[in-house]
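Sample pair:
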Amino acid sequence: MMTPTPTQIAVLYATEQGSTRDIADFIAEDLAARGGEVEVSEVTHAPELSRFDAVVLGSAIHNMNFLPEAQSYIRAHDQELRDTELWLFGVGLGPALRGPIGRRLGPVVPPEIARLRDLVAPRDYRTFAGVYERAGVPLSARVRYRLLGGGKYGDLRDWPSIRAWSDEIATTLGLRSVSIDTEPSTHTP
């Protein structure tokens, strides 16, 4: 009797301050716990995509776009990404916005990200909130954040939502069901 080959999954990310890396690590740990053979890497050091059955790719969102290294990677590997099972995610402030303006603008996919998403046609695209610290943020940016409905600073990540999305990916890939902690025990502040 042959043992089935584990699903090979690349979890790639572009991060500026570590929130996106933490989310990528969490997703990778979850998929590995379910039986996937997972490799995590920054997009600047990404492995050869032909080795993988699926790719989960995430980037921090700054100025309503993915980080430049994620943009370059997606454009350089668009055909390979289209030819694999792909899930795409962004990490920015949109999901953390409340109030009337924030609820309307938060879910909107910025045009540049929409173009990249449409170029590679992922199975799904999600946006998660990251960590947004007040220190070092210019007054003008803090005022905009408040006007758009930003309520608090700090770790704004919604780990149960991230876990649920990872569960959807695992189900689609036929990985086994497993129960892990909803929130990682350690993550970069």
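The first strand starts at residue 8 and ends at 14.
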